[in-house]
Amino acid sequence: MLKLPTDENLEYSWFYRCLFAGLLGGQVFTRLLRGKISARNLLEQMAIAGPETLTPVLLIALFSGMIFTIQTARELTKFGAVTVVGGAFSLAFCRELAPVLTASIIAGQVGSAYAAEIGAMQVTEQIDALYMLKTDPIDYLVMPRVIACSLMLPVLTILALIVGIAGGTFIAAIAYDLAPVIFLRSVQEFLGVRDLVNVLLKSSIFGMLIAVIGCSWGLTTRGGVKGVGKAATSAVVTSWVSIFIFDFFLSLLIFEELGIHFKI
Asked: A Pfam family name for this chain (predicted)?
């Protein structure tokens, strides 16, 4: 059982919170390997991480897909390569932009909620009450949130991909007279099944990362209501930074930028 220190000097230490997040992530990973998965509150957390975030995810995917298509098509038409607009779109939007944007939305809406909710429980001593009842906060609070985010973020990313491609197809037909069948055929040629599998894997890792950071910042909250607000804000910023850092290294590994080959 992971105990929390009571030293008030550690309340806003970013390094300490990152260290605690690493330890908490290890605890979660160990429990997952052992099959120690708590189903309590799981459906509720899946609803929070999934359907309740669907509208902003789809809206941002739609308009970002259209914006990216406009910028891509405008440049490619200068070189007479309008038929590969869909392929260029798929390489950047589907591989990188969609999963990162979706994860950023989840970090802002769900990760902050985790930090605020658990932080409020921490400052009102409800976490201590769980210990008194011999209930592990990791099993009761953290595990359902981590599993929910890890499961729902890939689903949201796939929906974002579909909506983004639809938006790109629409704007390419309206603004550049590019037939939808040509755009979609180019997407199909450039985007393979392996790319989709890699995107799902990346999204699942992002989901786990967001949940662990949100829960860690909540569990390390000090300083009353003011501390809850700071914990929520810091959790979102840290999640965004972590998403981009992890995305960089995952992209190097998954898409073989370093010449490392993985067979799926």
From this structure: MlaE
Residue 111 lies in a domain: yes
Residue whose pair of structure tokens reads 């990188």 in the numeric block: 96
The predicted-structure confidence for 43-74, as pLDDT tens digits, reads as follows 888 988 888 899 999 999 999 999 988 888 88
Q: Please list the ranges in the chain whose pLDDT falls under 70.
A: 1-12, 36, 38-40, 255-264
Which residue is listed with tokens 């409020």?
120
| Residue 148 exposed, middle or buried by CB count within 10 Å (0-12, 13-18, 19+) | buried
Distance CA 217, CA 233 (A): 10
Beta carbons within 10 angstroms of residue 242's beta carbon:
19
Report pLDDT digits (tens) over 202-214. Answer: 999 999 999 999 9
Residue in 230, 27, 241, 15 with CA at minimum distance from that of residue 122:
230
Domain presence at residue 264: no
Flag whether 17 is in a domain: no
> What is the reported pTM?
0.86
What is the distance between the alpha carbons of residues 152 and 49, in angstroms, rounded to a whole number? 6
How far is Cα 191 from Cα 245, in angstroms, rounded to an integer? Answer: 24
| Residue-wise pLDDT tens digits, 166-180 | 999 999 889 888 888
The number of folded domains in the chain is 1
- Residue 187 placed within a domain: yes
**Cβ–Cβ < 8 Å for 112, 233:** yes
